[in-house]
Vacuolar protein sorting-associated protein 35
Amino acid sequence: MDSPPVEDQARLLEDALSVVRQQSVLMRRCLETPGKLMDALKCSSTLVSELRTSSLGPKQYYELYMSVFDALRHLSVYLRDSHPVNHLADLFELVQYAGNVVPRLYLMITVGTVYMSIPDAPVKEIMKDMMEMSRGVQHPVRGLFLRYYLSGQARDSLPTGEDEGPQGNVRDSVSFVLTNFVEMNKLWVRLQHQGHSRERDQRTKERQELQLLVGSNLVRLSQLVDLDSYKNVILQPLLEQVVQCRDVLAQEYLLEVITQVFPDEFHLHTLDQFLSAMARLNPHVNVKGIIIGLMDRLSAYAQRESEVQSPEQRQKIEEESVVALMEKLKVNKEQGQEDPKKPSENGTDAEANGEPPAPTTESTQTIEDTTVQSDSATSPQQQSKSNGDASRNRGIPENVKLFEIFHEQVMHIAGMQRLPIQDITALLVSLVNLALNIYPERLDYIDQVFAYATRETQRFQNSAD
């Protein structure tokens, strides 16, 4: 169905806001009068019924939603203060008899989330009931705002303990937020396919206005989970939902949010999962922007970690880096002297392809192994620490080969997506920054990037761009 003109939407919004204001005043009067709680709930149901409209765009609907939200906030405060005189368990059942599904669910969530904050409340059962009942609203805009209300109202009352029981635990909270996210994402994607195909651009704009509602669930998830649960419980379902929706806007936005809201430490230990999911995205997704964002974030993290170190620590690390660099140069020199006697096949192939006779993958690995052995021989105390702090370089675990991972990813993206030279250059700039911030002693990393940049520039030298 076509959306009404903007002028009509403004008039419809003002009419709806007028009803909400009128019923809100009546509701407050009833709440202030003893024995009139039922009348107050009727007024609440009437004002919430204005959210049943399908004639408002996202911006206008949001303005109406905020007006209703303010009214329901007064009801929440009253319900909390009047418990147990007006017992919340009884009210939770009572409001489920409201005639229309939208006011029924808003009132159910209002009462239910207040009930969750009461000691000894059956939080787990309340969460389950609200989640199941919320499936009754499948209209994209109405459903998104309803679930946004559910997420916001329940946020401060979600259980965070470990006990098994009716009060619930942090695993129940994670499941609750994750399920709400999945359902909201489905509604958000479905909005793209509403109305005529000629309105596709308008739908995309409307969806961009609503994307923060979906992303709020990921913010809440980041506050609930630790590294183990993120790695083993959360990330895979999140990425699976992103991949399966096959929607370009959703995939780009959600992956950006995931990289922004979860701690850098989490990304360091889950890069393999994250990058493998990116290989399954819609071909039209701007993978370049996501990779650049992740590289820049981890580069900034390494820079912050290096600034936290004391001057003595920095001096020690710099001295160790110089020793490691000199060791590599020594090994390279020795290999260079041996090369004329025993030329390798790999070196010959590389020169035949016009590539610089830099160390091959095997020789680079040999150098890295030699360096690791040298480092471990010079500082054996570092390996004796059980917490793994000693095996970190500027906050990055030594076993996470960030440069190699992103170098391979950049070359894969440039080859598979046929990127223009401008996009390839942007990727390489971020890759160089990452190498300089995390591995300042590894000049061979910079050489690899410059060699690749040279080859790509030569490939594009006759291009119109």
Residues 305-459 form one domain. The radius of gyration is 29 Å. The chain has two domains: 6-262, 305-459.
